[in-house]
């Protein structure tokens, strides 16, 4: 029969494989053991070739594969649509809004096709395709280097274009998000662009379905500004959302109609 230490180490490997990174303090609290015990576990797992040590924790040896945009289109479709419907209602006529690349922001672009007249600036091919023939919507592309995996524009040209504009609102996507570190992506050029987007916008919204909350699958991060809004679907739990609320971040939970049900839960 496996000992407690063996079961704990197996669980640590599963966590690292699921979330991408593990943290000594978090593991210590989760398993009810001391930080030094966790460090010994990590050292043994590293010696066995099960994990790679990092500063303050460990990571899975096999990195999370980044899903392509095409693979992500059908994932959590109803959740993305509900989030997009809520976000579309925030935008007024005549505004200039910035849309990040991604499938949830692509769903938002779809909602804007028959909305009020406005200007949409985007870094994503999905939004461009949705709005290419939309009446009343002026569409601008940041340009730059096209990253095929995410169908997004990144790099110095995109950054230069951002630095010469300001926006009423920005709607961001993410591969993962935590209250402590912000937005997680596969490529540091993506996170650099997202950070610039937040600096140039009056209101910042992060649109993510619940499965991305608390995830840290990669090692590139974009810190968020002091004031921003996390928008997610109704499968998110209070345990998922409380760390964000504790930091004073506005949290919106949407139902299938795109209505905010945050005040009706519990």
From TrEMBL:
Keyword Transcription appears in the UniProt entry: yes
Sequence ranges assigned to domain HTH deoR-type in this UniProt record: 5-60
Database matches in InterPro entries: Carb_Metab_HTH_regulators (IPR050313), DeoR-like_C (IPR014036), DeoR_HTH (IPR001034), NagB/RpiA_transferase-like (IPR037171), WH-like_DNA-bd_sf (IPR036388), WH_DNA-bd_sf (IPR036390)
Keywords for this protein: Transcription, Transcription regulation
Gene Ontology MF terms in the entry: DNA-binding transcription factor activity
UniProt xrefs under SMART domains: DeoRC, HTH_DEOR
SUPFAM superfamilies given in the database record: NagB/RpiA/CoA transferase-like, Winged helix' DNA-binding domain
PROSITE patterns the record matches: HTH_DEOR_2
Protein name stated in the entry: HTH deoR-type domain-containing protein
Lineage: Bacteria, Bacillati, Actinomycetota, Actinomycetes, Kitasatosporales
């Amino acid at each position: 029969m496996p000992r407690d230490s063996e079961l704990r180490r197996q669980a640590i490997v599963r966590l690292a494989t699921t979330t991408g990174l593990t943290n000594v303090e978090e593991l210590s609290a989760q398993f009810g053991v001391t930080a030094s015990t966790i460090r010994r576990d990590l050292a043994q797992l590293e010696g066995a070739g099960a994990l790679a040590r990092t500063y303050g924790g460990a990571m899975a040896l096999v990195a999370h594969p980044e899903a392509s945009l095409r693979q992500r289109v059908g994932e959590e479709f109803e959740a993305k649509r509900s989030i997009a419907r809520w976000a579309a209602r925030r935008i007024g006529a005549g505004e200039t809004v910035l849309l990040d690349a991604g499938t949830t922001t692509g769903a938002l672009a779809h909602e804007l096709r028959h909305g009020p007249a406005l200007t949409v600036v985007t870094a994503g091919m999905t939004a461009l395709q949705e709005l290419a023939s939309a009446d009343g919507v002026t569409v601008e592309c940041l340009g730059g280097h096209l990253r095929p995996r995410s169908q997004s524009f990144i790099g110095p040209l995109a950054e230069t274009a951002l630095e010469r504009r300001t926006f009423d609102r920005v709607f961001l996507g993410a591969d993962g998000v935590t209250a402590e570190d912000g937005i997680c992506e596969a490529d540091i050029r993506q996170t650099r662009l997202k950070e610039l987007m937040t600096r140039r916008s009056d209101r910042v919204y992060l649109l993510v379905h619940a499965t991305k909350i608390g995830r840290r699958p990669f090692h590139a991060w974009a810190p968020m500004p002091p004031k921003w809004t996390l928008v997610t679907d109704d499968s998110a739990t209070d345990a998922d959302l409380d760390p964000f609320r504790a930091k004073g971040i506005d949290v919106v939970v949407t139902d299938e109609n795109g209505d905010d049900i945050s005040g009706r839960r519990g």
